[in-house]
Amino acid sequence: MFRNVLRTAFLLSCASIVFLVCAGSMFLLNVLTRPIAAAQPAASRIVYGLTLLPSGFDPHINASAELGIPLRSVYDTLVYRDPITKAFVPGLAERWEISPDGLIYTFYLRRGVRFHDGEPFNALAVAANLDRITAPETRSQKAIFMLGSFERYIVRDEYTIELVLKAPFAPLLDSLSQVYLGIASPKALREYGTDLYQLHQVGTGPYQMVEFIPGDYILLRRNPIYRWAPPFYRMDNPAPVEEIEFRFFTDPATRAPALESGAVDIIGELAPLDALALARRDDIALLPQPIPGMPLQFLFNTAKAPTDRLEVRRAIITATDRVAIIDSVFQQLSPVAYGPLTAVTPFYEPQVKQYYPHSREVARRTLAELGYMDNNGDKILDLNGVPLRLIVIVPTWGYAPQVAQRLQSQWREQGIEAELRQVPNLAGLLAAVQSGDYHLVAFNDFGADPSVLNNFYLSDARNNFMRVSNANLDQWLRQAVQTSDPAQRQNFYTGVQGLIMDQALILPIRDYVNLNAHRKRISGLAFDAYGWFPLLANLTLVGDD
Amino acid sequence: MRRIGLPGAFLVCLALASLCAPLIAPYDPLAEVGQALQAPSARHWLGTDLIGRDVFSRILHGAARTLSVALIALCSTVLIGGALGLCAGFFGGALDWLLLSLSDALLALPSLLLALSVLTLAGNGSLQIALAAALSGLPAYSRIVRATARSVRTQPYIEAARALGAGELSVLWRHVLPNALPSSLSAGVIAMAWAILNAATLHFLGFGGDPSLPEWGAMLAEGRLVFRAAPWIAFAAGAALTLTLLAVNDLARRLAAQ
């Protein structure tokens, strides 16, 4: 009897411990993170929170967007995109010319530019970077593909270089404005080789890499001799930040507490509910940043019944209440997506908003006209004895599981059954898509040029998850990257966006918005044209909060 | 009651609750039955989640999944691992060498990694997770049974049975097995606890197929995302998992003590 009492007491105390651990974790986190904040050098150093641990940080080799957050400020690019107008402005190239046939890009380089290691910047440095990116042994995952039809370069003189293309490739300037084609010091590239260079990166940008301990932190220090800034870098900054330490906060639940405790000064990818809570604080400012590219969307497999039928796809989109999803999952912090490009992407076509307004009645009628009825009383529509059942592939990131569960719930009410198949990583997603056994798959990509669509909608595209083959789509997408005339590109992309929605190839959900927040001891946080990468040179220290 | 104690009673209640979940759960675990992230109340005892589903109903239905993992793990571990370990320990020779080498190789890998490898080969899904979690505990379990069988086979009563003319299989079945059973069963229950934990971990990491189906590990992962606004989701799933594991471990201790 006494043993039983003892055991009951033991179990009760275990339950209490569980409760205390859960309820007190926020408090503990605060307490634990405070000493880190106190250990920082107070005024001149800030901590920037990264949210992903990419496999590598070499912009020429690796593809993660996360690497650009610190490295955008370590490198300059030949051209830049203005963050507001998205127009191309001079970077390391003072000016450039494009031959009438679109095959030769001539860049006239800025003089007097020096790398952080003291090496001079010139045409040979650009050539060395192009050599490295295109070398097979570099095994570039992104930069080499961004060069498109690049064939070779010609060094005309010390400050003039020509890039020769095999075929016109309009997105080239966009590519050259991205950190993946940032210009690195040839001396450092030679000295450290392919594998070690990422630990000792040397560019010409407003900040230089001081130290990089993989998995731990990256430390940047202000470049005191930086005089060749693009026009949107604030050169009269009264109190620039001297040192920026990047630390990793890969668990979403830790980000908001880290910011509140002062362990981090700036962080992105906050959970929507956390962002709302932070916005109510006096010492923290919320800065939602829309990201150009593709929205969170579900791509229809047009090769598998029943989504091979256009009317079924249209009915499914019409049956979906996207506003309700945005309200609950994203707390109204993201705009509803209507087409294949987000509203902040160049050449976005607002006419896509007219497609498929939510209406349960229209969806039900459309499906009824196709012959879908609930013949066996199981509340699921069926046609010739086959239930209307959709297999949805759902990755774990980007709130896709939460969105998919709401879709499942909305569709169930309308007699459409959805089987969600969650995949834990990209390899799992690609394998699931490869099998062809799916009706919808959630996937997206980012970019400030709509040519990002080519990777998905061309009939021979690597990511043609829709298994679409449309002659008009192929032709317009190809022509749009071959002309540099903005009016012509707008025409092509208007047609492409209209066609994609008319054919109901995707179910767009929300335009991607990165929820950033910063402590108010910092001001001037702004992001470049791609939305992900902060302009660190514009950060100003206001004082202790 | 005295033999199984409070933890055993808890497990019995849990099993009954999971069997009767469709009858006793107040709501459909998949249906949106209220506003999202409502705090615990008389209407929703453990609140609602981000989709507006009743957390209590999901915990009850999740128990069935957890217990089925536990049963699959117990059966496969005790049957496969037990038979292998018993034969290897009793007969020795090449079979023993083979089992030792194999289990040594597999023990070099953490059990979760082993489970992940099984999932890579078998595909993603709830049944696969249950099997992967069960199989990952097999090497350690078969080693324990083997060691028990080896110690039993040198006992005087085994020699006496042999001297009386009993065949090898008969000795194994009638004398070694009954004497190795208590400690093997106890180890099997501990393997079951590990299987429950590994299965929950795999669901937590995003394996397991449909994210809408109620599962404690997946609920814990989802609850973490909204922990500040709605700590009850993660707390409920975490507490259910912790209490179940405590109960299973206590059961193993009692079995070993007998």
TrEMBL record, chain B:
The keyword Zinc-finger does not apply. The chain crosses the membrane at residues 67-91, 98-121, 127-145, 184-205, 225-248. Residues 1-17 form the signal peptide. One of its GO terms (biological process) is transmembrane transport. It is found in: Cell membrane. Pfam families: BPD_transp_1. InterPro entries: BP-dependent_transpt_permease, MetI-like, MetI-like_sf. It is a multi-pass membrane protein. GO terms for cellular component: plasma membrane. Keywords: Cell membrane, Membrane, Signal, Transmembrane, Transmembrane helix, Transport. Belongs to the binding-protein-dependent transport system permease family. This is ABC transporter permease. The lineage of its organism: Bacteria, Bacillati, Chloroflexota, Candidatus Thermofontia, Candidatus Thermofonsia Clade 1.
